[in-house]
Amino acid sequence: MDGKAGKDLKRLLRKLLKPLWTVLRDVLPSRLHVRLDHLRFHGRLPDLKHPRTFSEKIVFRKLYDFDLRMPALIDKIAAKEQMAARFGAGFVIPTLAAFDSEADLDFATLPYPCVVKANHGSDMNVFLHERPANENRLRQRLRGFLRRSHHASSEEWAYSKVQPRLLVEPLIEGGNHGLVDYKLHTFGGRVFAIQVDIDRYTDHRRCFFDPNWKKMPFELLYPRSQEQIPPPPNLEGMLQYAEQIGEGFSYVRVDLYEVEGTVKFGEATFYPGAGLEAFDPPEFDELFGRQWQLL
Question: What is the mean pLDDT of residues 177-188?
Fold first, then answer.
């Protein structure tokens, strides 16, 4: 079976077995849960005595790293407050409102267009150009966001310390490829690679560049774009911000945007992809792992 067929088969099996796994994982000890998750997505058990790859070191962090600085940096509301205090209000996209419950949200008063998102995880966003026609259905969706737990699903400890809330931000439109994410992988306060995600909601592609904007020859979950992606005009500023935020952490991914010529903070991530995204070719999992000196 060739590589593509093998990957397709793995994806199909994971999809078919997902309901069973969702029930099973909740009764497993944390160590067994993350080891089996790693096996499901990487085809082998992680070496936790001598973690070598980037993915193994994320597993190690999930089980053994309880740095009390992490929860406030992954809470989207608290992180923006922290970044604004440190770098100025212009460094963050403003929080227009925050709610403890979907029931507290009054759609009549929202400043459209806007985005409503959960503060305690990723891919929990609703983009609103106008007041929704079916508010009850949207409230149900937002309730689902608030009930979602990255700690339960993938043992990401820091999320267990964040109170789930909803926040509202102005909707910022991007260019031809939407709003481009620049995700700076920072090890020991130094940027090693810049991940660029484009066309996220239409034809998601992902590329990696080194700090000199030389494209790196691998894929991670999504296909590489074959077109030329120019560096952001404020690349040097992004590198400086990321390295200041990453200082003192063995690893953190700092997500930034460029909006109307200024750098904006997106979020900080300590467990990208929960460590379940497979590098292709896998040698780059080891290359990234070599940059990460566990503290």
Answer: 89
